[in-house]
Amino acid sequence: MRIAFFDSGIGGITVLHEAMKQLPHEDFLYFADTLHVPYGTKSKEEVFTFVKKCVDTISKEDVKALVIACNTATSIAIAELRKTYEMPIIGMEPAVKPALEMNRSSGKRVLVFATPLTLKQSKYRDLVSRIDDMGMVDSLPLPELVDFCEQLIVESQQIIDYFHTQLIPFDLSLYGTVVLGCTHYPFYRGVLKKILPSHIQIVDGSAGTVNRLIQILTHRDQLFGRGDGDLKFMCSNNDTAYIEKMEKALKMLRNVGE
Is 235 considered catalytic here? Predict the structure, then answer.
């Protein structure tokens, strides 16, 4: 049986990559909703419909767990998905809590990069209001970054200029941590390390999500460890060119050691 990962596009490959590092003897399935990417600029109702249809397809495969490797899809659909399917479903949330903990001693602020739809959802607002008792978290929507990532435009002057423009309103000396609150965004970790002040740490939710996946499968006695890291790619429009793009994106992550 495989561990499945779902995202609107190639972003969730950052989470898949983390899982493949931690669980080298499991087999995997990755499903991208290529018919509807990106999710972050669409309505809540549209995204829920898209996610439900894709998860229906995934559930027909031989999978033992599903990771919703998309912050937007998690915030909108995960509660209903867990009511509908028997397999364990693990979601994503922006790593705001660990970011705040990293900054406790310094008193520095946290800046969350995410899609507009994630930032609009009550799940995100409730998370921040629950743990940010000192009002130290700021949020920045970066919808264009998903489009850049889907084109595999990662290290270029265009991206550097984009970040510089988006960060103009922020005094970065006040911040200690940047949270990558969309699974597409870790593709830009290398660029951000170059353009952000050296004191700013960059975090995302991939490791925490995979740790949760391991806990759940261990509890269910389903960490078999008899696979060989076999990976099956699927997408909602059965586009072989996009599958090749996903393979290339995974190779990019492996090459940079992220």
Answer: no
